[in-house]
Each structure stands twice: as structure tokens, then as C-alpha cells.
Amino acid sequence: MQRPTLWLFDIDGTLVDTGGAGLTALGDAAEAVFGDRGPALDLRGATDRGVLNGMFEHFGRAAETALADRFFAVYLERLEFHLSSGSHPGRVLPGVRALLDRLLDCPGVITGLLTGNIKDGAWRKMRHFGLDRYFDFGAYGCDHADRNQLGPIALERAAAHAGRVFDAAEIVIVGDTPKDIACAEAIGARCLAVATGQVPVGQLAGAWRVVDDLSDPAGWSDLLEPSSPVGGIDGVAGER
Length: 240
Hints:
By secondary structure, the protein is of the alpha/beta class. Helix content is 37%, strand content 12%. It has seven helices and eight strands; from the N terminus they run E-E-H-H-H-E-H-E-H-E-H-E-H-E-E. The radius of gyration is 18 Å and the shape is globular. InterPro entries: HAD-like_hydrolase_sf (IPR050155), HAD-like_sf (IPR036412), HAD_sf (IPR023214), PGP-like_dom2 (IPR023198).
């Protein structure tokens, strides 16, 4: 199997834990725009656009562009506040920096974001946690409400960034939910699933590879070698 040369990363639960800053900011925005914090949200693998569509439905409001713009403007302001105020202590998840540093040093390898966050929210989180220097492009939750549609968008932007098209065998999507796994499957890519979010290992079994977290290089270092062994149920150590 080809060595992966395009790595696409989810953010929440995969790269960072914001301590609930994003969830609180979404509630703040709902209260400001709709007058109520809205329904309980399950953000595991969700897109921000999909979340807002659900709020429009919950509050019986038409999906108007002006309301959407106001919602996300409030959300971004509140996200910045909650991240910077210390009210929601967050962290970079185990092993993330080590993996990103290794990828940065690998010739021919590029890294991008594939996230349900809207673009401005994604980069606010990356800057806050000092991870922005590792990424130059991405596909975001403002591009489409359906996460499975973000993969093709990410591939288009990766091709524009790198000046070439990537085959499915060259792509790894790193995420922490079954929706990340489905997103990878939709474009024929491999998914390296990490159990660092809110989904236990057993519910990530459909991924190409599952690891508890990224802190043990045995879970990913072989993917950086020029020739990587074929994955699968009897494949490399660390697969489940």
C-alpha cells in the first residue's frame, strides 16, 4: 500500500479538546438570534452548518442568509471569548504535536483540515492552540452541511495547494467519530480513528485503524515509511 501523502484532520476530539468552548458559543449564538439556547446538541461529527439548519427547524424559522450570518458572527465572537478567557480550559490532545511535527518533516506530505467547524471557527481554534502553522488549507462546516460532501472539497483544495491530484490510496483522514469514518469511505480513503473524543473504541471499529490516542508512535509511524504494509484485520500493530 502506498505511503499516505495527504493527511486530513478533524479538529474537535481529534486535535484538540476545547473544554466545551464551542458548544457554549453555539448556545450563546442561539440565545442572541433566536431568544433561547435551543435543543441539546450532539456535536460528534456534526457540521456547524448542519447544527444551524437544525436550529432553524427547531425554532420554526426560515433559513435566511441574514440570520445565518448573524448567528455565526455571534458564535465567532463568543468562541473567541470562551477560548481566551480561561472559562473553558482546553488542551491539545496526546501525541498530536509529535505526529504533526513528523509530518511537517516528511518530504512530499501535506496536511489539511477536514472539519465540521466553519472556516473562521476552525482557524480560531488552531491559532489558540498553536497548531495553525501545520495547516494551509481545509474543507469546513460552512462548505456543506453533509460531512460526506466535505471530502471531495478537501481533495479539490489539496490538489490546488499541491499542484497535483491525490489518489485515494494516498489519503488518510484522522478523526474521532463514525462520521469521520464514513467521510473517509465516501472518497475511498483510509481512516485513522482516535478514541480521544466522546466515542469509545468499540464504536470506531469500522475504521481502517483505531488507536486509543496518538501518543504512541506505533499507531502511526509505519505510515511515514516509504513502503507501508497493507492494512486490515491482520495488518500492522495497533489496528483493530
